[in-house]
Design goal:
Four copies of one chain form a homotetramer. Chain A has about 250 residues and is an alpha+beta fold. The first copy, chain A, has eight helices and ten strands. In chain A, the strands form two sheets. The first copy, chain A, has a five-stranded mixed beta sheet, with helices on both faces. In chain A, β4, α4 and β5 form a beta-alpha-beta unit.
């Protein structure tokens, strides 16, 4: 049974900061957001977790393998090197959406995202080392069937992008409401989904749903593991099987 | 009349590179993609352009102010510092979507995105300095009305994200098909749109369309300028007027 | 008794890479070197180690707290995100210079720094968790007495720099030959030295030596700990005591 | 005749910031310093200038090709993305040391490096485009003859480092006092020197001086150009001639 540890990273008072005393150059905000995300991705990724850029001022991570002290250290390091600070909520559960809801509540209880005084709150719980198992995380790695041939080499870059975004928007809603899962676009034509204990039939159904709804054809590799990296790496290998064999759903467990 | 210079940056052979000889750690791919984007944002942004992360392996930019030699230098610098290289297409036009289509075609003609041999192509045309005017670029900066109060401080972080993604997916399609415009989510609850010569009525109509379709309420500030930065900065100021006055559409020209 | 774990990071085949097929832009090499160093500093620093930029193509680190698997992961991550790769040697000992000599030998035995075929070697030994003690690392943090008042606000920036470099060059040689210690300039007017079990008299003697030799007046804070961070943080606090009390040598143990 | 435009970048109030309210993690300071330097290297380097990390809180650059507005933009961009700010002085002259002295004075007159209130001063003069010539900058690129064979593959990494540092410390002093030149270690075994109009005999003399004083054998390639990049690139090519032909001084003009 899955036991996902989910962390929400929220930049403190970011909206007001971006326009005080004057609006800041957009290119600088983009650079700041991307590099902050990249740093968190390295820190969490080095501990076998995954971070998703999400909205950049709010980033969602699967942090099985990161201790409470790890979260504290990351928060301190960011505070030392950026002109902004992070508030953090951590929670765990068999249901990834519920875990994220709990993590979000931890931060919301500490104060508004635009609260002038809320800075660097850190609340929540992690899974103790002794309680971790190889089933804790289930990751599904979707991509668009033959995106390069069908879209990238054929359409203009924005129309390709629209197709992928429509596919993502449909999948994200379906996986959240039908399967309590959290879906994240990660670049190219790839979507990584954090799932509870789903089965092949659930993935087949999701793929049909998206194809019917927006005419975008997906395939998926699914893996399980003690951490997001372990599960995700297995999922990547399963996806290679889809590519090699022409199948649409492959589970590496 | 707008005359948008659009550049497409496409990483050469990225799909295969990410799985050769074996799939690479996802956190490292995320870090690479984000930092590459951040570097391009700085280079183009320092010349008053805007770059949008788009799909990360394909990035769209408004590069009025960047010469052909600037594009060459950026390509060389990336090749010196990253394990991947960029191919680049540049085009101009009164219609941003058409300009991007032309830029895309330049790259597609040089070879597939997964062509083993296509590396660092650079094709296209820029607007010569002497032909630039203060009307060349029109930027609209949308955000969600009171996102913090309605969503961020109330819903779990994924449900807030879903709302914003649905709003973005609807706006991007509408602006592309109804108004030949290119829309990009830039973090938080912000969407920046690259437009041809649109008027207040067009923006009001777009806002109503999105509200009717997905029940997400947007407001917008619009600016014009010689470069994306000039137009976008004016748009940011116009958006502050919306926030201060409670209006939904403000044009800073 | 100190038991320093020292790691040497050496970029594979860097000299030839920088000029093949043609010399690369110097500013790009500087950016690459600095960002690679920064990444290693974060990785090792997050595990309570210290890395020193040293010559950038060869970097020395105190890695008590980093396991062999940590070194492997860092090597893999760099290989995924940079156009160069690292070879690594790790060794331990009561004598920091000897430990570095052993770490260097590990890399040298695998092949020349400009060996076309040597890539990503990783050899050596770490201190097992169960064998670590609070005395393992001794760090001395030197700075120039009143550098700002005497130099930075008074001389031109290069003459200030010369003074600090001369002080560093003298201290580095003295500490290596008289005290088996490794000294690194870390910016500003700061020099961090990795020492075996030295005593107050050794530091007083070193300070007099440098003052006599090159007329640069140093002060020093010294700390001990299980890791470079623990020892170095104690050293920083001891240095604050020098600043507050006007003393020249303070040991925080 | 050379006409070097020199810029001094000085972080405002850095010393106090690093210890307020408490000393900050050393690894974070190293990361911040290196990444700030890398960003400035990209910005200035993209405009054909060179920046040298120098003391990291004080960085010296040759900025022929950077306008006053470019300096302003860099300062603004850093202020948007870092927890520290920069003060900047720019000056020009036939004598690089004098130009740096003038640039330093500009910053010193605005206030102390540890002045609580001095923030983001920007003072000085640049060379107008119409006054630039192909002789403005002379760059000499020194390296140690066969460093890899003599040192890197033979000695322990610190003893190699000592040799190179001693060579650098001697060259920097000699070039400054005998030849009004500014010397900077740039990694590996490389030293880049910013010179006025020197001739082959001056370089031969400098090489003999260093060899006699500290027994380190250098070779040098020298170039001239309109910018640091142009001069430095020619110098790199001249250095390749030294390596290929076994000569010690090569001038690419």
């Amino acid at each position: 049974m899955t036991n996902t540890q989910v962390t929400l990273f929220q930049i403190d008072n970011y909206g007001p900061w971006t326009v005080t005393p004057e609006p800041r150059r957009e290119a600088d905000l983009q650079t700041l957001q991307s590099r902050l995300y990249a740093d968190i991705s390295q820190f969490v990724g080095n501990r076998d977790g995954y971070v998703f850029f999400t909205r950049f001022d709010n980033m969602v991570a699967v942090t099985n393998g990161c201790s409470f002290e790890d979260h504290e250290l990351l928060q301190e390091s960011v505070g030392n090197r950026y002109p902004v600070t992070l508030s953090i909520g951590v929670a765990t559960g068999t249901n990834p959406v519920q875990a994220l809801a709990d993590a979000t509540a931890r931060v919301q209880e500490a104060g508004s995202a635009q609260d002038k005084t809320r800075r660097e709150c850190l609340e929540g719980r992690v899974i103790e080392d002794g309680h971790r198992t190889d089933d804790d995380v289930q990751i599904a790695h979707f991509d668009v069937v033959n995106a390069t041939g069908q879209y990238t080499d054929e359409l203009n870059a924005f129309d390709t992008f629209i197709e992928i975004e429509q596919g993502y928007a449909e999948l994200m809603r379906h996986m959240r409401y039908a399967h309590d899962s959290l879906s994240f676009f990660v670049g190219g034509d790839n979507i990584i989904v954090v799932c509870p204990d789903l089965e092949a039939a659930d993935y087949e159904e999701a793929i049909h749903h998206v194809n019917d709804a927006v005419d975008v054809e997906l395939q998926v590799g699914v893996g399980r593991g003690k951490s997001a990296h372990d599960a995700g790496f297995a999922a990547k290998h399963a996806l290679e099987t889809c590519r090699a064999d022409g199948t649409r759903v492959e589970l590496e467990f």
